[in-house]
Amino acid sequence: MTEAQAGTCPSCGAAATGAFCSACGARVGPRTCAACQAPLSPRAQFCHRCGQPAGAERKAAVPGSERTAWYVAAAAVTVLLALIVFKVVRDRPTAASPDMANAGNSAPGTAPGSPDAGGALPTGRAPDISNLSPAERFLRLNNRVMDAAARADSATVVNFTPMALGAYSQLDSVTNDERYHAAVLHAQVGQIAAAEALTDTMLLRSPGYLLAYALRGEIAEFQGDSIALRRAYADFRAHYDAETAARRPEYADHANVIAEFRKKAGT
């Protein structure tokens, strides 16, 4: 090998062969710019063509990957928040409480969030529910989540929905009204399959159950599933008269849900 081929280390001046100096370990030989691929001299600190730091080959790739990670995270959060409040934040024809946020358990004449309303206070520390029955815990936690959803408080919805569903799972017996509340909780946090499974159970227990069709329709509308939405409308219309005659107590509690869906279904 000739002297020209051997070369000289740009760092310590020692004779060097190969890619690295055997004396100090510095890189020997031609280099290229990571940004524009221009050839760099062994001692170059910056690219003479584009100005990119000569030793920033790995660092240059980091900002792009970090930006991509942030974009993905931001998109995921946006989708989650949209699912949490998909019913609550939509434009509505009146100023009434949103359908999906209607807990339907306040006593007549009581203000939402008051002690007599059976719901949690809209703000402040969570109530002590350790001494309540499973049914009372589910009712209290469900009301707290519904109130938070009505205020678009997604943090409270996310934090308290698992607690509410946990209380639901401990119920000794379950009514269709409680199934409806649990299905709404699932739907608000994007657990659509679980919500639809509960609508199936509602209809198995009470064929023609209007709240099941209403929730199916809301989910279909949110997902843009026109076929499922038309089916929900048709089923609702087919059973409306008979179910209204049944005078189920929960139909009065959720009268605004049924009234709005009836209008949409053209009943």
Q: Would you write up a description of this structure?
A:
There is one protein chain. This protein has helices at residues 3-6, 62-84, 134-150, 154-169, 176-188, 192-205, 210-223, 226-246, 249-253, 255-265, and strands at 31-32, 39-40. It has a two-stranded antiparallel sheet with strand order 1-2. Strand 1 and strand 2 form a beta hairpin. The protein folds into two domains: 1-57, no CATH class; 80-265, Serine Threonine Protein Phosphatase 5, Tetratricopeptide repeat (Alpha Horseshoe). The N and C termini lie far apart (94 Å). Mean pLDDT is 73; it is low at 1-5, 57-63 and 84-124. Helix content is 52%, strand content 1%. It is built from ten helices and two strands.
Average of the residue pLDDT scores: 73
Biggest beta-sheet profile: 2 strands, antiparallel
CATH topology of the largest domain: Serine Threonine Protein Phosphatase 5, Tetratricopeptide repeat
Oligomer: single chain
| CATH arch. level architecture of the largest domain | Alpha Horseshoe
Q: Class of the largest domain in CATH?
A: Mainly Alpha
Range of helix content: 40-55%
Number of strands: 2
Work out the strand percent: under 5%
Task: List the uncertain runs.
Answer: 1-5, 57-63, 84-124
Instruction: Give the overall silhouette.
Output: elongated
| Overall domain count | 2
The chain-level structural class is mainly alpha
